[in-house]
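COMPLEX REQUEST
Ligand: flavin mononucleotide
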Amino acid sequence: MRSLILRIVLILSFFCFYCSATAEDSLSAAGSAPAVNVSSEEVSSVSSDKTASDNKEEPVDDELKREIQAIRKSLHGTERKKVLVAYFSRTGENPGVGTISVGNTFIVAKEIARQTRGTLFEIRAEYEYPADYKQCLKVAEKEKAAKARPKLAETVDITPYDEIYIGSPVWLEDMPMPVYTFLESMDFSGKVIRPFNTHEGSGEAMFEDKIAAAAKNAEVKPMLSVRGAITQYESVKLPSAIKTWRTKEAIKRSQEIIDSLN
Ligand SMILES: Cc1cc2nc3c(=O)[nH]c(=O)nc-3n(C[C@H](O)[C@H](O)[C@H](O)COP(=O)(O)O)c2cc1C
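STATUS: Structure written out below.
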């Protein structure tokens, strides 16, 4: 019985968690200013009503209440996380998309920031990379061979942020060197990093490992990888792909809790 109650609470909590993400998206998309969210209090009342009516003869004991609280906390967190979306992106000539005026990685970063109400930060070297693809390739090859760490045009204080999304294109099966400058310049203790990249065939290019090695003390979560051409020509696919990526972890966590009840 106890296990059944926990399962019901878990399923309801996860359902409300997903609905809150959806409500959040439609509001942001409509350009509504106020931050409206299905709060954990609302979730609590829905869940409590359900369990109370389902379980009239058997009062919910304190231990069970604590377990229910723990499940809710693990799915929702106690408060909204503060999110930074730091990205590197270049405009100009790129394979697969021709000459673009809005960078591929920036398009993904902007959608993540919209969904999470995060703050965007552009990782930018002090100098600009050539718009011409072949010239840019030459510069990138030189920098990669030299393991260069170009100075950044701007820095950001990551202290207030809980989650940091880091986005980068794939350059020569690697990240552009300024992304390393950014990652190696600070301590990520207590921060969660969610990497994402855009590419034209290389896929993930082991960015999770590369970021974990460069970002001191960060907890690196599974990454999202998007083909550059999708961002330019099929960007309607992005919101749901990003939402699925973001909620995947919550699904995994709820499955782990269900498994622990068996
Ligand atoms: C210098 C350079 C090197 C690149 N190397 C690769 C590569 O090794 N593998 C790959 O899949 N794409 C590569 N690309 C393509 C980019 O990863 C892709 O176009 C990406 O979406 C660009 O993102 P951005 O517009 O945000 O800069 C390279 C592009 C440039 C400019």
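REMARKS: The beta strands are 83-87, 92-94, 98-100, 119-122, 163-169, 192-199, 219-220, 224-227. The pocket of flavin mononucleotide is lined by residues 89-90, 94-96, 103-106, 133, 136-137, 140, 169-173, 198-202, 228 (CB under 6 Å).
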